[in-house]
Q: What sequence folds into this?
């Protein structure tokens, strides 16, 4: 498998910090005001949440779709416009699963690229019909037994991305992936470590809201029983499910276009957008329902974090 890591740290653009953020790069408060008439959704603090079974602590609305699109673009940039790294004979791809498909960006993209493969996206939200004839979506809690139109279907590739917090118990998910996979098939998962990091020796620990929020995330995980750290456990759990030749890579994603490398600079721009369109949704429900915070307090945290990014004085990154 190709190694995506750069040797050493991320090289810094020496001109970073010498320009202001364009106004349209910021996230306007009005973007968070969403509504829905769909019966199985609720609106809470201006965001829309779905309520399939226990529901999901993160919103599902137009802002979250933009958030998904930003991460989708980050991964395509990182992989050089590829949809997976697994060493699969692409001419033999027949069945592909996208677990936690969300808005279906990956599922529809891979279906378009591989028209001879059948692609199925699983999620707990209802998805409209795909524009790709070889792509379909199933409303399914992936911790349960997967119910397929063809019960004998086996997958050549199972893709999982950014599903942290959405799954409480990962063992049955990986077990289903193993049982529904063709011999020689591959599972490929992308999860972001939620703690911001920096290689800048002049940046004190907890010197900013972005760094402080990692403590809030620990409180959120403890009070909800949700797994915020699947990125650190998934290799072991995947092996425990029966998979062999499991490989793991960790790649630094810069928060903002502060890298001198052109590819990483573009990744940083889209990852900044991912962070800005995601932060309020990641925090609001759990912090107000479980930690006793006021919506105004959560919004103030977000505003401060965005100001720190916009100052162009920090060199933060997250591990993928």
A:
């Amino acid at each position: 498998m190709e190694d995506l890591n750069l040797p050493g740290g991320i090289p810094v653009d020496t001109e970073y910090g010498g320009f202001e953020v364009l106004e349209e790069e910021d996230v306007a408060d009005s973007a968070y005001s969403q509504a829905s008439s769909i019966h199985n959704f609720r609106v809470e603090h201006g965001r829309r949440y779905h309520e399939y079974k226990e529901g999901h602590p993160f919103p599902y609305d137009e802002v979250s779709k933009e958030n998904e699109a930003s991460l989708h673009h980050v991964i395509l940039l990182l992989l050089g416009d590829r949809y997976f790294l697994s060493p699969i004979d692409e001419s033999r791809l027949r069945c592909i699963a996208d677990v936690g498909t969300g808005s279906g960006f990956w599922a529809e993209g891979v279906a378009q690229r591989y028209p001879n493969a059948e692609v199925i996206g699983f999620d707990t939200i209802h998805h409209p019909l795909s524009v790709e004839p070889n792509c379909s979506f199933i409303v399914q809690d992936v911790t349960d037994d997967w119910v397929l139109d063809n019960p004998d279907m086996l997958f050549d590739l199972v893709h999982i991305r950014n599903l942290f917090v959405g799954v409480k118990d990962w063992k049955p998910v990986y077990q289903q992936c193993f049982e529904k996979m063709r011999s020689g098939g591959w599972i490929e998962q992308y999860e972001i470590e939620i703690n911001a990091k920096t290689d800048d020796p002049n940046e004190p620990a907890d010197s900013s809201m972005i760094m402080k929020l990692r403590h809030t995330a620990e409180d959120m995980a403890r009070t909800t029983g949700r797994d915020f750290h699947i990125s650190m456990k998934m290799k072991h759990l995947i092996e425990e499910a029966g998979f062999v030749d499991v490989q793991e890579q960790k790649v630094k994603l810069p928060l903002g276009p502060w890298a001198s490398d052109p590819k990483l600079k573009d990744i940083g721009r889209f990852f900044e957008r991912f962070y800005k369109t995601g932060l309020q949704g990641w925090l609001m429900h759990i912090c107000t329902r479980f930690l006793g915070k006021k919506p105004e307090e959560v919004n103030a945290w977000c505003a401060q974090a965005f100001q720190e990014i916009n100052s162009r004085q920090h060199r933060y990154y997250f591990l993928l």
